[in-house]
Amino acid sequence: MAAPQLSIRVAAIGESATLAVDARAKALKAAGRPVIGFGAGEPDFPTPDYIVQAAIEACANPAYHRYTPAAGLPELRAAIAVKTARDSGYEVAPAQVLVTNGGKQAVYEAFATVLDPGDEVLLPAPYWTTYPEAIRLAGGVPVPVLTDEGQGYTATVDQLEAARTGRTTALLFCSPSNPTGAVYPPDQVEAIGRWALEHGLWVITDEIYEHLVYGDARAVSMPVAVPELAPQCLVVNGVAKTYAMTGWRVGWLIAPPAVTAAAANLQSHATSNVANVAQVAALRAVTGDLAAVDQMRTAFDRRRRRIVSMLREIPGVECPEPEGAFYVYPSVRGLLGRELRGRTAHTSTELAALILDEVEVAVVPGEAFGTPGYLRFSYALGDDDLVEGIRRIQELVSAG
Predict the structure, then answer these.
(1) Phi and psi at residue 65, in whole multiples of 5°?
(2) Same-domain pairing of 240 and 336
(3) In the 8-state DSSP scheme, what is residue 323?
(4) CATH code at position 42
(5) What is the mean pLDDT of residues 156-179?
């Protein structure tokens, strides 16, 4: 008798490319290799002390040793509603907030709640690696809408309309963007929102990098730009990037009340409540000021300008300047097909492997984000490591 098989749906899901690169870099470091990792989207700062202290106190409170509501601590849901109005101008009720195990769970539950099998989701590319996998797990069909550096990695209404079909149900929107650092201008956010409203589409908008913008760029929340869109808009956010809390795993979904209630029902069976200690820490974070993120943003801005300048010195690399998040996404097509230390890479995946093998620098290839021919560098690492890592790549290319 044949052995039972894995679910086709789950077997088709690949490992997160960014986490895989980060894991390999950390394993090599643990083995004593001087690897510099540009792979993970993780601030290199510690979680602020006052947030950690709130968690310590929560550990000693018996009230947090038991189950709490699956949708989140009521006080945290209320605080997130206040924080959202404060930071983006979007007024929501606490009942519209669902606290999740990180932003990834919020993304998946958003798609699982609004999609039926075969529904299509427009997905501007380059895209974060989790988006298409979450769409597929929810039974949907991701439809990439390709952008490039010439258009600032932002999709236009004309492109979205060209990709729309009778099966199109939703649009995934992310600004500031992972992996490109692109920030959509306010007028473009409004135009896309009005287009989605006209065609009756759900919009899932990821605002996890809302506070990490530079120069004159401004992150605008789509339901604020187009208030009429609110009944069909789902907002994903969390504490991971703003407060250097990636490991605490607290995100949230803000949605129309019926959507939030349905997603909360799903979560009640999938995971129950988010860990109470982490929720208390998140409560302290969102009710505090933004001094910590201001300090991080200053450091990221410095690193952003440095890494762009250094990458632009490498022949064959075209690097636009990002306006948000903490990533650069240069085109490396000019390096493909060139011999580097006796090896030739024909794809960005092969080039990333070559760079890791030859100069011990870990980067993520564009294939992971739906656009071959590019590399993603996270500049959420120390200044010295950043300079040394790019210097190694400069030497690799110059030596040929």
Answers:
(1) -95, 5
(2) no
(3) -
(4) 3.90.1150.10
(5) 98
Write the CB contacts of 396 (distance below 8 Å, at least 6 apart in sequence).
Answer: 340, 341, 355, 358, 359
Q: How confident is the model at residue 361 (pLDDT cuts 50, 70, 90)?
A: very high
Say if residue 160 is in the same domain as residue 30. no
- Kindly indicate the confidence band of residue 154, based on its pLDDT and cuts at 50, 70 and 90: very high
38 and 90 share a domain?
Answer: no
Q: Is 149 buried (19+), middle (13-18) or exposed (0-12) by CB count in 10 A?
A: middle
Residue 336 has pLDDT above 90, yes or no: yes
pTM, full prediction? 0.94
CA 70 vs CA 67, 108, 257, 265: distances in Å: 8, 16, 15, 8
Residues 55-98 have pLDDT tens digits of: 999 999 999 999 999 999 999 999 999 999 999 999 999 999 99
| 3-state SS class at 160 | helix
Question: How many other C-beta atoms lie within 10 A of the C-beta of residue 190?
Answer: 17
Please say which residue of 240, 266, 287 terminates a domain: 287
Query: Does 90 fall in a domain?
Result: yes
- Please say whether the beta carbons of 235 and 189 come within 8 A: no
CA distances 316 to 150, 191, 362, Å, are 16, 35, 19
| SS3 call for 173 | strand
Specify the 3-state DSSP secondary structure of 344. strand
The mean pLDDT value for 154-168 works out to 98
Q: How open is the CA angle 98-102-108, to the nearest 5 degrees? A: 70
DSSP 17-75: HHHHHHHHHHHHHHTT---EE------SSPPPHHHHHHHHHHHT-GGGGS---TT--HH
* pLDDT tens per residue, range 195-209: 999 999 999 999 999
Looking at the fold, whether 165 and 82 belong to one and the same domain comes out as yes
Quick check: 272 and 235 in contact, CB under 8 A? no
E strand or H helix at 377: strand 375-378
Residue appearing with tokens 């601030």: 43
Cα(212)–Cα(283) distance, rounded to whole angstroms? 20
3-state secondary structure (DSSP) of residue 226:
coil
User: Which domain does 72 fall in, by range?
Assistant: 49-287
